[in-house]
Fold this protein.
Amino acid sequence: MRRIVIAIALIAAASTSAHAQAEWQVKAFIGPLFGASTTINDLDQATGKSHATYGASFTELWEVFGVEGEIARTPGFFEREPTGQNVVLSSSLLTLTGSLIVALPRHIAGYGLRPYGTIGGGMLRAQYDDNLTVLPVSDTMAAINYGGGVTGFLSRRIGVNWDIRRVQSVGGYSLEPTFLQRADDREALSFWRATFAIAIR
């Protein structure tokens, strides 16, 4: 019984110590979204082009593992450069995800660059309005994401981060057949994203 009590006390002490050493990071990022593919009506054939995306993430990181919450927005995801003949008037793509992080141990990285990998899930919301007002889109889909990056701090509080991720929808309902899609098509959307961020801890 005494050994059990001692073991529980040691585990509790280790847990408290790990929590005390946890590092909070807030990152504001921007970068290109590219390599997108979708079964959603792409009236202007624009999703395959590169689009600017921006957002913020909130991370709690221990010695090796961490957790992250992130929100990102990509305006104009379904739009080409203005030509006067575009069908889509306004559009956006919103992602909201939570992820598990596995990083190089802090005692090894020290004050240098600290690489990490990440995997998680959340949701995508795609929206656009067309000038014909006959095929508007407002879809929300479950999604997974995975990737990695590296963070380095220039001072005790301020650092920089580079990150690349793959985001793709999962599941998705069957789409109604139209002249632009088949009856067996299912709602799907995927893309790559590379970002640069300013990190604060």
User: Anything to note?
Assistant: The two ends are 42 Å apart (CA to CA).
